Amino acid sequence: MTLRAKTYHQLFASSRRDGRLTLTDRVVLVAILASVVVAIIGTERAFATENRSAILWAEFGFGLFFLAEYCTRLWAVAERAGPEGDWTKRFAWMRSFFALIDLFVVIVTLVPFVLTGAPILRLLRLFRLAALLKFGRFSMALKALGSAVIERRYDLYVTGALAMVLLLGGATALYWAEGKVQPEAFGSIPRAMWWSVITLTTVGYGDVSPLTPLGKVLAAFVAIGGIGLVAMPTGIIAAAFSDAMQAYRDKIDPADEENPMP
Amino acid sequence: MTLRAKTYHQLFASSRRDGRLTLTDRVVLVAILASVVVAIIGTERAFATENRSAILWAEFGFGLFFLAEYCTRLWAVAERAGPEGDWTKRFAWMRSFFALIDLFVVIVTLVPFVLTGAPILRLLRLFRLAALLKFGRFSMALKALGSAVIERRYDLYVTGALAMVLLLGGATALYWAEGKVQPEAFGSIPRAMWWSVITLTTVGYGDVSPLTPLGKVLAAFVAIGGIGLVAMPTGIIAAAFSDAMQAYRDKIDPADEENPMP
Amino acid sequence: MTLRAKTYHQLFASSRRDGRLTLTDRVVLVAILASVVVAIIGTERAFATENRSAILWAEFGFGLFFLAEYCTRLWAVAERAGPEGDWTKRFAWMRSFFALIDLFVVIVTLVPFVLTGAPILRLLRLFRLAALLKFGRFSMALKALGSAVIERRYDLYVTGALAMVLLLGGATALYWAEGKVQPEAFGSIPRAMWWSVITLTTVGYGDVSPLTPLGKVLAAFVAIGGIGLVAMPTGIIAAAFSDAMQAYRDKIDPADEENPMP
Amino acid sequence: MTLRAKTYHQLFASSRRDGRLTLTDRVVLVAILASVVVAIIGTERAFATENRSAILWAEFGFGLFFLAEYCTRLWAVAERAGPEGDWTKRFAWMRSFFALIDLFVVIVTLVPFVLTGAPILRLLRLFRLAALLKFGRFSMALKALGSAVIERRYDLYVTGALAMVLLLGGATALYWAEGKVQPEAFGSIPRAMWWSVITLTTVGYGDVSPLTPLGKVLAAFVAIGGIGLVAMPTGIIAAAFSDAMQAYRDKIDPADEENPMP
Hints:
4 copies of one chain form a homotetramer.
Chain A: H1 3-18, H2 23-41, H3 45-50, H4 52-76, H5 86-94, H6 97-114, H7 136-151, H8 153-178, H9 183-186, H10 189-200, H11 213-258
C-alpha cells in the first residue's frame, strides 16, 4: 500500500460513512476550534496589541495548516476507485460540497493577510466554523433537522404570523398608551417594537418599560401573551428536533452495525 | 371564456379550496404586508415629516388598490354557478365573511383620509392585517387552533385560576414585606401586581425589585413559582396547537390529493 | 314543593354532582370575585381615602351577603334526605368541608369590622378566594392535580435536590469570584443566593450582576444551567397537570352523560 | 443479637436495598442539611462575628458527628456476612464508594480546623452535600439520569454546537454594530459574548443592551433565536429526565414489592 493510498484511507475512507471521527478528523477539529478561539480573542484590543506577533504567527500557521490539508486531500483523492485519470478525479472532488467548504475555509483564513486594509475582514475568519460541516455526523444531523423543519413549515408560518400580530399589537398598544410620556422609547411603533420583542421573548432588559398605570396594565397582558408566543414555536422546534435526531440515529446506527470497529 | 369568467377563476376558484396561493393571492398578500409596513413606519415622526407626501400617496394607492380589488370581486362574482341574477349573487357575496373582511379593510384604509382630525384614526390602518384571514390556509389554521383551545377550556380555566392566585399571593406577600420601604412600587396590592406579573412571566425588567431581606426571600419563592406558572399553560397551549395543526393538515392534505396541481 | 325544598335544590342539588354552575353559583361566584377586587383596590391609599365610605359599605354588604348565604344554607339543608331531625342534619352539614369554608369566608370578611386596630387584618379578606373551592369543578380539578403531583413526588425530590445544588453552587461560585468587589451583593453565600435564584429562574432583574471577567464567565455557566433547571420541573409539572386534567375530565364526563341538561 | 449486629442492621441493611430511609438515615440527613446551612450562613460576616463561638462549636460538633458515624460504620461492618476476618471486611468496606464519600465528608469538615489560614478552605464544607449520595434513592436517580443523558449525547453535541454558533453569531453581530458606540460592553467578541449569553438564555439583566437602531434590530433577532436555543436542549433534558425517572421507578418498585415494610 503506497503512502498516497494510506493517506487517502485516513482522510476520506471512514469518516464520511458512519460519522465516526478518525484521528485526522480529531486533529482537524481541534485546529478549527483553536483557530476560531484565536480569531475571537484577537478582537480584544488590549490582548491583541500585546500579543500582536503571536496572533499573526498563529493565524499564519492556521492558514498554512488548512492550505496543506486542502492540498493533501487534492493529492490523495486520486486514489478514489474509478477508471478516470488522476486529475479528472481531482477536478470532480474540487467541485464537491466538502471540497468547496475546505476551499472556503482556506480563503477566509488567508484573505485578511492579503487585504489588510479593513479590520472587518478579520471577522471572516469566524466562518471557519463552516468547516464543522465536513464532519459527517454534524452535517447529517443538520440535514435531518432541516428536513424536519421543512415538514413543519406550515406550523412555523402560522406561529410566525400569530407572533407578528402579537408583537405588532403589543407595540401599537404601548405606542398609544406611552407614546406621549416616553417619546424616546415609545414615540413610534417601530420604537415600541424593540420593547415588544424584548418583553415577549421574556428577556426583559428593563432599558424601556411602561411608566403609566394604563401602560403597565397593557404591558402585563403582553407579558402574559409572551408565554403563548414562546410555547407554540418551542413545541414545534422541540418536536422537529426530536424527529430529526431520531432520523439521524436511524442513519447512524446501521452504519455502526456494518462497521462495528470505532 | 370571457374576461369576467377568467377573472372569477383567478380571484375565487382555487384559493379557497386547497389553501394554495394563486398569483393574485400573492400580489394581494404583498400589498397587505407593504401597506402595514408603511402604516408602521409612518408613525415615526422624523421619517413621517420628511416623507409626508410619499406616505400620503402610498396610503392613497393602497386605498385605491383595496377598493379596486373589492370592486373587481364584486363584478366577477356574478360568474358564480347558479340560476340567480347577477346582482342577487353579488348581494349574497357581499354578506359573506370574506367580503365583509374585504370591505372592512377598504374602510379602515380610506377613513383616515376623510376624517383627518384625530391621528389615532391612522392606527386603524393596522387592522388591514385582518385581510390575512382571506387566505384560506391561514383562516383554516386559526379555526383549527380556536377549536383546539375551546376543547381544553377547562384546563385553561383551572390554570388561569391558579395563576391568578399565584399572582395575587405574590403581590400580597410583597405588599406586606416591602410596602413601607418602597411605597411607590409596593404601596398597594394593585401596584405590587405589576411586579408580580413581570416576575412570574420571568420578564424581570428590574424597574421594581425587593430591597429588604424578607422581600427577597419571598420574591425568590415567587420567582420559583413562576416556573410552574409558565409550565402549565405552556403545556396546554403547545398540545392544543399541535392538535390544531394536525387537524389543519388533515384538512389540507385531501384537497392536495384531489387537486395536485399547484 | 315548599320554599325550603326549592331553596335546597337551588343551593345544593346539582352543583356538587356534575360540576356545572347553577344560577345561584354564578351569583355567588360574582360576589366572591367582586369582594376580592374591592379588597385589592382598597389597599391603594389614594383611592381608599377618597372612597372610604363606599368601600366600608361594600365590605359590609359582602359580609352580610356571605352571612346570609351561610344562614340560608343552614336553614335549607334540613331538606336533605334522611330520617334525622332538622338540627341533626344542620349540625352534620356544619362540620362538612364546604360548610367550614363558607364559615371561614364569613369570618375573614367580618373580623376586620370588629377588630379595627391592625390594618394587616384587612388582608385576611383575600382569603375569601378560598370560597372558589366550593365550586365542585375547581375543587375536583385541584384534587386531581394534587394526586398527580403526589404520584410524581420522587421526581420533584430529585429535581428539587439538583436545583438546590445548582443554586448553591452558583451562589458559592459568585461569592468566591465577586465577594470582594461587590460585598453588598455577593459578600456572603446567602446574599449571592438572591442573585442565583433570579438568574436561574431567568427573571434577571439586573439589580445585581457580576462585574469582573471571572464572575461573568461563571455567571454565564450558571445562566446556561438555568435552562436545565427550568426544563426538568417544567416537564414534570406539565405532565402531572396533563394527567390531572385527564383524570378530571374522566370524572366530569360521566356526570355530563347522566345529567345532560346544563 | 449483639449490639454490633443491631448497629449493623440499622446502619447498613435496608437503606441500600430499597431506597427507603431508616431512622438513622433521617438523623444523618438532618445533620448533613443542618451542617450545610451553618456553613452557608457562616459566610455572612455580620452574623459570623456575632456568633463566632457558636458557629465554631457547631462546626466542631458536625465534625465529631461525621467522624463518629464513620467509626461506627467501620466497627459494625465486621458483621457483614462472609468468612473473612473482621479487619479484612473493614478494609474492603473502606475502599467502597460509600465509605470513600463518608471519609471525604469527615475530611472536608475537619480540615478547616487544622489549616485555619485560608478562609477559602471553609467553602470546602459545602462539599458535605456529597453525602447526599449515600442515600440509595438519590444515588440511583442520579445514576439513571446520567445514563439517560449519555444515551442522548449526540443530541446534546448537536444542540451544543448550534447554540455555540448562535452565541458566537450574536456576539459577532453586536460587536460589529455596537462595538464603536459602547466599547466597554461590545468592544470585542469576548465582551459581546456576555451580552449574548444573557440574552439567549432570556435572563436579560439589562446591564448591557444595544443603543443603536441597527444593534436593536440584530438583538431582536438574537432574542427570538433564544427561543429555539432554549427549546431544543429543554426538550432533550426533559425527555432524558423523564426516561431516567421511569428507569429509576422500575428499579425502586420491585424492591418495594419484595420488602413491603417501610
